[in-house]
């Protein structure tokens, strides 16, 4: 009886991976490598301009001449500048009025589109048009609508309906110009609010409304106790972005009024540009821009604390 002995096969010895392979297998290196492009872009296009702007705010730099450190002198001058305080007042008023109108009309439109209405898809596409159209084109259109001589609104009221004897000077007086700009901003901002809130409404389960109906809840009670609490996180985000976009608005205001009449429609952004670029005082313009930062921080903190209330939506405490 012969016994066959199995001969073990030859195995290639395992080689140690090279330093490059070990490097790409390292999790910390991969994290740094993936984040480096984003961090680099933020440093170049965000951190450097922001840091330079803050530095210029404390100098007397002008176009064509490097400045020297003057400390808080620019801010002291602004504290005594009536035009600056007028811009602060109108920036806050413009943001509050436009945001309130955009949210009221946007929420109403979102609630309407959340129901089964004919041609709902076409209506949604039409609603997005004001948001899609470039801001400058919208500003030119409104500038024509508000023109003292060729206004279509004045033409209808005077020549067609005969309700007025004279044309309306929308941009000739301070408060008329201010409200005209608010109307233009609301027209552009409603689509963003409406579509965002509509997306939030469609995440709410219909069974919650059915349960509320079985309990005899009225439409207002269903909105107050079902819709509003579940929509609050999205409301906080949309409100924050709306406040930031409105407070830092530049194109619409500058293209329609350029801050007039008599500097009455200047926002802080437009005044900073006017003082810094056409006026040549970069330090003063930068100081006005830096003065906007506390308002923006307040809006961001509001969003953070509002989003913290999402805990109770998941059945947790709100500590």
TrEMBL record:
**Which biological process, per GO, is one annotated for this protein?**
transmembrane transport
Q: Which Pfam families match?
A: BPD_transp_1
List residues of the ABC transmembrane type-1 domain.
88-303
Q: Which UniProt keywords apply?
A: Cell membrane, Membrane, Transmembrane, Transmembrane helix, Transport
**Compartments in which it is found:** Cell membrane
**Family, per entry:** Belongs to the binding-protein-dependent transport system permease family.
The entry's protein name is Sugar ABC transporter permease
């Amino acid at each position: 009886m012969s016994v066959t002995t199995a001969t073990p096969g030859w195995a290639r010895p395992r080689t140690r991976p090279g330093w490059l392979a070990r490097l790409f297998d390292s999790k910390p290196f991969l994290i740094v490598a993936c984040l480096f492009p984003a961090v680099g872009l933020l440093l170049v296009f965000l951190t450097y301009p922001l840091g330079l702007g803050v530095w210029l705010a404390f100098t007397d730099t002008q176009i064509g001449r490097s400045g020297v450190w003057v400390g808080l002198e620019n801010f002291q001058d602004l504290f005594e500048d009536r035009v600056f305080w007028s811009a602060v007042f109108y920036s806050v008023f413009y943001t509050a009025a436009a945001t309130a109108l955009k949210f009221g009309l946007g929420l109403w439109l979102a609630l309407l589109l959340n129901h089964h209405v004919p041609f709902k898809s076409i209506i949604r596409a039409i609603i997005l048009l004001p948001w899609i159209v470039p801001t400058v084109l919208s500003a030119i259109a409104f500038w024509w609508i508000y023109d003292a001589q060729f206004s279509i609104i004045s033409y209808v009221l005077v020549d067609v309906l005969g309700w007025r004897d004279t044309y309306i000077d929308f941009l000739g007086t301070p408060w008329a110009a201010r409200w005209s700009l608010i109307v233009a901003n609301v027209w552009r901002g409603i689509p963003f609010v409406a579509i965002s809130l509509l997306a939030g409404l469609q995440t709410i389960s219909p069974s919650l409304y059915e349960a509320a109906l079985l309990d005899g809840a009225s439409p207002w009670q269903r909105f107050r106790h079902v819709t509003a609490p579940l929509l609050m996180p999205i409301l906080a985000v949309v409100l924050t972005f709306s406040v930031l976009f409105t407070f830092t608005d530049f194109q619409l205001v500058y293209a329609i009024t350029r801050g007039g009449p008599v500097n009455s429609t200047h926002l802080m952004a437009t005044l900073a540009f006017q003082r810094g670029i056409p006026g040549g005082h970069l330090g003063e313009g930068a100081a006005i821009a830096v003065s906007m930062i506390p308002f923006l921080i307040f809006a961001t903190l509001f969003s953070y604390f509002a989003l913290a209330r999402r805990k109770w939506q998941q059945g947790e405490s709100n500590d």
